[in-house]
Amino acid sequence: MQKIKLMFEFGHGPIWDSEPFTGKLMTGIEIVDSDSDLEMWNRQCMDLYDECYEFNSHGKGCYFNEETLAENKKKLQRILEQIKSRLEELNDNNFTIEDKATDELNKVN
């Protein structure tokens, strides 16, 4: 059985794997990869998460701003719920979902 992993990383949407900086889905599961709503939500999450990265800021080449993540948390959670709901609709017992993205957001104050 295939696995879809949901996790955050700079330049990627939460659905792994996806094409860096475009959000185009590349899970290898055709029904998922061709879903326009999933691709749109993947891109929205990518954009919100990437806002947390600041370059040449706080004396660092790359700085992750936890305050920005806290500000974006509710939006990210809402979109992740849409993603998970849609994945469940599409799933005919061909894949499992490993959700590390929600776990990460649950740690944010």
Give a nutshell description of this structure:
The protein has 109 residues and is of the alpha+beta class. 47% of the residues lie in helices and 20% in strands.
| Main sheet strand line-up | 2-1-5
- Mean of all residue-level pLDDT scores: 95
Secondary-structure-derived class: alpha+beta
Strand content: 15-25%
Terminal Cα span? 35 Å
Radius of gyration: 14 Å
Please, how many helices? 4
Helix content: 40-55%
Query: Main sheet, how many strands, which sense, barrel?
Result: 3 strands, mixed
Shape: elongated
Poorly predicted regions: none
State the domain count. Answer: 1
Query: Order of SSEs, N→C?
Result: EEHHEEHEH
The count of β-strands is: 5
Coiled coil: 66-100
Keywords: Coiled coil
What does this structure look like?
The chain has 109 residues and is α+β, with helices and mostly antiparallel strands. The termini are far apart. 47% of the residues lie in helices and 20% in strands. The protein has helices at residues 30-33, 36-50, 66-90, 100-106; strands at 2-6, 15-16, 53-57, 60-64, 95-99. Residues 66-100 form a coiled coil. Keywords: Coiled coil.
